[in-house]
Amino acid sequence: MQPFAPERFLSSYPSAFTNPRVVMPRYFIDYEDGSESLRDEEGTYYPNLHDARDAAIAALPDIGREPPPADGRRAFAAYVRDEAGTVLCTVTLNMAAECHSERQRTSA
Q: Mind listing the pLDDT tens digit for each residue in 82-98?
């Protein structure tokens, strides 16, 4: 295994660290779970919109681990915004849990 070489790593990823003229955009990811919502007031710097979208996708399953309501259905959404507040990307996750009676399982 080669030792970590910061200069090689940094040269592969142009950023404000290696070039002060390159500025990563800041994105805000807001989350919604039915009546609950969480607005991102701080934002996070990502190299591009796809990386911000991927961060929103990665977070939704963790949010979905909360106990579901009695009907077993939940809908989650994440909205990726730019610094102007424009929604650039919407990510949704819909969950539904349905239980089947013992009689239905044995007749199938």
A: 999 999 999 999 888 88
